[in-house]
Hints:
Elements: H1 3-14, E1 42-45, E2 50-52, E3 64-68, E4 76-84, E5 91-99, E6 109-114, E7 121-122, E8 127-131, E9 136-143, E10 150-152, E11 155-160, E12 166-167, E13 169-174, E14 179-180, E15 187-194, E16 199-207, E17 212-220, E18 226-232, E19 243-251, E20 256-263, E21 279-280, E22 291-298, H2 299-319
Amino acid sequence: MTQTEHDTLLAWIDQGCPKGDTKALPAPRTFPTEWSIGKPDLVISMPKTYSVPAKAPSGGVPYQMLVVRNKFPEDTYVQAIECKPGAPSVVHHIVLFVASPNADWNEMSPLATWVPGDRGFRCPPGTARKIVKGSTLIFQMHYTPNGFAQEDQSSVAFILAKEPSTPLHSNFIFNTKFTIPPGANNHKVTGSMTFGKEVLLQSLMPHMHLRGKSFDYVAHYPDGKREILLSVPRYDFAWQTTYVLAKPVRLPAGSKLECIGHFDNSKDNPNNPDPSATVRWGLQTWQEMLAGVIDYQIVEETLALVAQTLKEQVFVLSVV
């Protein structure tokens, strides 16, 4: 602020903060009451309600994995997705997974997520989440009791793609084998993923818990070049977000994407549940995670879609 702005603000406060011309006020903002992504084509709910207790048992409420089958009779391309908790005050997060037919649960892929403040996800133009015919949906539910017993039946809404689209893949980059010593104020943990095919990276989401301090995504290219794609120097568990790249980043086959996290397990971290604890990977908030969520296209799939589209156009012209 300039000195003039500073003096004007203080003078206004000293005057009792009088209102100006109310006719000059902008129109009040309106917010969607149903789905932020718009009217959905399909809504799927958890198969049953879950009773969240008023008080968490020792160790917290275990993650709930609720399975929905037989909702996709054909391959389905989804342009926008939004998860909605039924009892938002006790839903810590939702991760919606999809498993293709005959896949085991170790082969689940993340389809959508919800954390407080989330407003749904739209795929970049020309892309869509692909759900294979006969796939199973799995709601991974993390509940945090707040003193009042509640019933939750969360849902997910889909807007289907209206045009041929390239699959938008999602994946996690994990490190589950780390130990953060008591009192450590800048403990480094890394995880990485190497791409066997050329990809276009579309978005990045960092995830840690209460001791998370900073998070970087770094690309290591086959020619030895190193590039920081995202730097979050002051990570805040209460303000998690997905960072959509203004321009997709092309990663050649053989590129490695590295997640670098630093953790503050010291008494100087006001969010630290216990500075005297040795901290390891765990699902509950007082434990820790290093997880990067990424969205990307596989370039050969994009080229195949372009070739198929051109072939269909040529066929139409030939018929005409």
